Amino acid sequence: MNAISVLRGQITAGHAVFTEAVRGIAPDEWTARPYAGANLIGFTAWHVPAVQDWALHTWLRGLPELRTGTALAALPGINPPFAPFGMSLEDADGIAAATSPAAVVAYADAVLAAAGALLDGLTDADLDAVADTRTHGTRLPQHQSAGYLEEVDDMYDMPAWRVLAGPCFGHVRDHAGELRTALAILRARQ
Questions:
Q1: Does the pTM of the predicted model rise above 0.90?
Q2: Residue 162 belongs to what domain range?
Q3: 159 - beta bridge partners?
Q4: Which tens digits make up the pLDDT trace of 95-126?
Q5: How many domains does the chain have?
């Protein structure tokens, strides 16, 4: 086994856990806030593939997110004019209201395929490379807001393996657990 295989397995497993959680969200739950100050369920769900997309495309390679230049941009709510984090609560609420579980799962599926394609082109030695994230991460207008820049401040100079391990599977599992907990809170109130 090599590191690429481990990363591929973790990203694939995280995707399965995440999409299972999202597929079980009812429409009234999608735009619900589980507790005061929390993000709406739908925003948290959108945020997961959006962060993976950002990490794979923008942060590591200096490209626009996949959601901006493909058929994904036509899915309702998938391509707001924001980075996947660092926006206001009002803007995050707007994303939840504009999208749906089906659109987010389609987005997550496309990001998983892009991750697989990226991993196909890497060797274990490539995983120690450090991308020019100081340039990559701020080239596009949506990556220049104060909230975004504050969020990425401690992420510069990470090797590729750390970016793939954090935003691409550790983060996914964290939010899948958050979604399950938030849904349990909402459902316990009914």
A1: yes
A2: 3-189
A3: 130
A4: 999 999 999 999 999 999 999 999 999 998 99
A5: 1
